[in-house]
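Help! Submission page says 'invalid entity' but I think these are all valid:
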Amino acid sequence: MKSKTWHLNRREMLKGGGVALALPFLNGMSWAAPSKSIPKRMLVSYFSYGAYMPNGPAGIPNLNQPHHDWSWWPCRDAGPLTFNQSAKPFEPLKDYVSYYRGLDHAGGWALGGHSSGDVFATGADMVGTQKTNSISIDQVAANVHGHKTRFASMVLGTEGGTGSYGRSKTLSHRGPGRPIPSMHKPQKIFNRLFNPYAGKGVEQVRAGLKREASILDLLMDQSRSLKGRLGHEDQGKVEEYLESIRALEQRVERTSKWTHEPLPEIDTKGLNLDASHKDPKEYIRCMYDLVYLAFQTDTTRFASLMLESENSSQSELWNYATYVLGYKGATHDIAHKRPVDYSGQWDRWRAKQHAYFLQRLKDTPESGGNMLDRTVVLWGSAHPHASHSTKNYPIHLAGGNQLGLKHGRLRSFEGNKKVPLANLFLSILHAVDVPVKSFADSTGPMPEAIA
Amino acid sequence: MPRLILFLLALTLLFPVSHSAELSSGKSGFVSHIKPFFKMYCVKCHGFEKQKGKVSLYDLDGDLGKGKALKRWELILDVLKAGDMPPEEEMTRPAKTDVLVVAQWIEAELRKAVARTKENSIAPQARRLTNFEYENTIRDLIGFRLKLTDNLPKDPEKPYHFNNTAEFMLLGPEQVDRYLENARKVMASAIVDPAKPEVHKTRREWQPHGLDRGIGVDEVGVWGNRRHSPAHGMGLKSFPDTGEFVIRVQASAILPPGVKGAPLRLILGQTIQINSSTQRVEPVGGAYVVNSIDEPKVYEFRGRIENFPLERGRVVRGRQQPDSRVITPQVLYDDGTLNDGNRNLTMPRVVINWMEFEAPVADVWPPAHHTRILFDSPLRKENPEAYVREVIRRFASRAFRRPASKAEVDRFAQIYKMVQPELKSMEAAMRETLAMVLISPQFLYHTVADGEVTTRPYELASRLSYFLWGSMPDAKLLKLAGEGRLDEPKVLAEQTRRLLADKRSKDFVRNFTMQWLSLVKMKTVPINNQLFPRFLYYVSAGERRGTEQPYRPTIRDYMLDETAGFVAELIRRNASAANVVESDFAWLNQPLAAHYGVLDIEGNHFRAVPLKPEHRLGGLLTHGSMLIGNGTGSAPHPIYRAVWLREAILGDDVSDPPADVPALTDTAGESAEKALTIKDLLAKHRQKESCNDCHARLDPWGIPFEHYNAIGKYQPLVPKEGARISGFNKQTHGDLAGYAAYLKTINTEKVEAAAHVPNGPEVNGMADLKAHLLEHRHEDVAENILRRLLTYGIGRELTTYDRYAVAEMFKQSVANEHRLLDMIITICQSPLFRGAKDKSTGKP
């Protein structure tokens, strides 16, 4: 692998605060200024169509058989982690990862195996009572702490856009009927995050924003007057529009405020922003790198990353296993056919990329620990294994050790111990200082996560 | 459906009409006949306990309009009439007369239920422009195309559905944010500064050196070009940020015997490296070069510089180098033997003596697209305020596709006033003001009924143009709308014809066809490059060896042109819908024709090619686009093809497989070698009852396609079951001809393509399948096309409430023998399309 060096610009560093001056110039130091509150971060990431879980019904390993070397689960029994072939990439991160078995969103049960990814980050009951998706975990957090960073959150995916009901291309939702389109082009994401002024001077940008705010005001007035003259069904559409303009006004205000803070300067050497789906490893790592950079520079603290979305037969995601492993068939076929040789390899490939990201965080020092200590990373899918059942998700949690999360174990919640996955979500939210009482169908926090 | 009407008619002749009269209407009929019928024949599988196909009948009562029952009733009616239910293999099947009575009762009750509802003619809803419509609209508004969709969140896609429905076209802050960025970009290009800009020029010449060593230094060959030859492009170090450019090339062709011309293409963007597949480029245009080197000719190409990718300048020894672009000429000749050894000299080559680039084109300054907005007028000096208002009024009236109201002009004039002191020049202030027009709801949404009756004709103008052009109405349509004449059937027919004759209708046909036939996925099915070694272009060396080389159009790309072009040609000829199943011509160019085995076609332009039976082409069913998209990349996939046939051609709604289907086996279609066994696997599939319920009615439709392989070629022989096929290997096979010879030795078994279609005979292969469809399903095919066109045209899904409106149109279509242009006219004239509130009078 090429060496990747992102040096924080020294000049910006000096401006950032005097304390930083005393530290040696480390490769990839956390950008968060010590004078500010030390950030607590969260990433929700998703892979589609489950993982390989042989030797057991419904994704739970059979306790009468030895553990399968290529099962997605690292070991058979709940307790301290041991790592099989599939989970091997996480071995160096032993004390930073946990596996949760037997959890799922009841709201996704009836959604079907090609669609339940829709609710992975929301837990909404889309088939039953709610009919539409609801707010996602990253947005709940962004609503509370988002104002502390240049961007409240960052929504990434590998196919882009929102997708539609049952074929979501994003994990994040502002609320019912309000999906947030995911961004999937590395260069565009980079520009938006780190070059938001597109080369213009700060003064010029500020003046532009001021002007824009007043214009948007006028535009709102005008559009409001239109609403009164519309038929019932069209009013909803204009409401959607007005809301968007309002959000744009808020963004202008926010961007304006942030023009008073220096932009991080990032050396893009080694970062291949032209990476495409044709080279999955390069592309996926680039997406992870962008999340890493956004966290490291404290550009945002909450991110979602739909590594793979479902119903992707019209995109290159369909070919990932072909490009990576030489599998002759669609990547999704692996989930149905579960060829032994490819299933485990495919899972391990995904694990490698995820471990790469975790390792980067871990290698980056931050206030007496490292970035991973203060970043909660959820990684999972909304199906267990072959045949796309919608129960017992593969759930992998990492980081946040300094936020109270305890790791190094496989925790199991199958059978009588069953609790909603939303309980874990609630505990994650609490770990990043979002003191909500409930999330989706949660019945309370999950004490096991912090014990 | 009318097939069914005929069927019913035939039956009514056999059985006295009194039969249906016996059955009293409404609830009592339900109790006396319908319920017992259901009990006897249906609820065993569609009851409380078993709900096959997720359909149950036990809770229906005689009130058809109640809740969501209506849709279910319609489904029951359709399957009864089609004879799909009860299934053939069921022992206790009702007499046809009984079915008829039940069907008639449902039909009558359904009609009443539909008539009772106020919703029976749902006006088209407000929906935002799709990205496709958005880019086209801007193009027609400012007069040139800008690439804008790249910057917008992707529109949702759903196979066999159109994404222009209101349900899909949501709007969020991110979308509006990008609209704003785009709007500013658009106005920066559309309005120029008054001073004539610096013109950037680059020119390069090539001399005919090195002719003794094969291909010359002034030549562009298909493959293996010399260093410093024009094939490596002309670099540009200086160009404007925006503006039109012109490229002139003096070129001539060196043609091998039997080849009549060289297809030359220019691409512009980053430098293409031979071992790379990530450089970004865009085509500028092409020419078919036939003149010999004795008569060199100058070819001219134009485009907008901002649409082409840049190569960012690197920092060299601390100094920022300028950004650059490269113009690269290519020869797109492909007779299917590319890269088969060094055959450069036996393929057409293009000699380029010189090439020049110039931008912006400034013969007339300011350019026409500028003066269209900031028009020349004494008013500008005499009364600037009035001038500004007039500029806004004209622009907004075009952008909103209807006259802007005074209040609207006032608002934008206010914006102008607000920004002008700061931005100083009129040009800058107007850019900002008009950018705001482009993020107004009146621009972003179409067919917004804003409640004022005066705008209704304009809505119709928009509906027409967004249907048939995917873009805004032109001046002519708006004028007719303004005069209130557009609603006249004769005028509507004229305008429909005029719009379809315009080249913009190509956008409609392509967009419609791609979604109707769900063709997108053909681009991402992974082609097995060992079995099909020269079908796509691959990087041949280096780190990215074996990955697709994206810089030249492939036969796969031409296949999309084939399908869209074929449909467009059917409409142009006003040919019958039956041509979708079988036609006497195909739409081909040379490389694609060579692929299909059609000989003696010259050049890369598409044209109608008369077919002979031995070509085994005709209609849409043998189009490579469909066959590849519904294959595995190594082998055909009969289930995908069956789903395609039923969804796209017959108009059935094939439900997704249940989420927790167990895998067929562990090896189905996993590898090319084992693909042969798929028919047997399907048989196994059908042994399981849970699978069989759907697959018995599905799989047989896919089997007759089996002669067409994974890259859409006719292939009557395949290897023996279980045989291993080696992929192409240069050492073993030498060249493609060698590989073909090898394949011949192992392809010894006849393909099995016979299947018993549901409610029909045994069909063996494509010819049989087409004959069956034409004879027995012709009307279903036609009705499906009618429904798809209508759905696309009005931008919403059809419901049971539209059933009788569609039936009316269908009647009309029958009278026109389902000719496609006539069908589109019928749609445009229908009350449903015109958005008339009252169906009976057709008046708002």
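Support: the input was valid. A stray whitespace character was the problem, and the output above is from the cleaned input. The longest helix of chain A spans residues 232-258.
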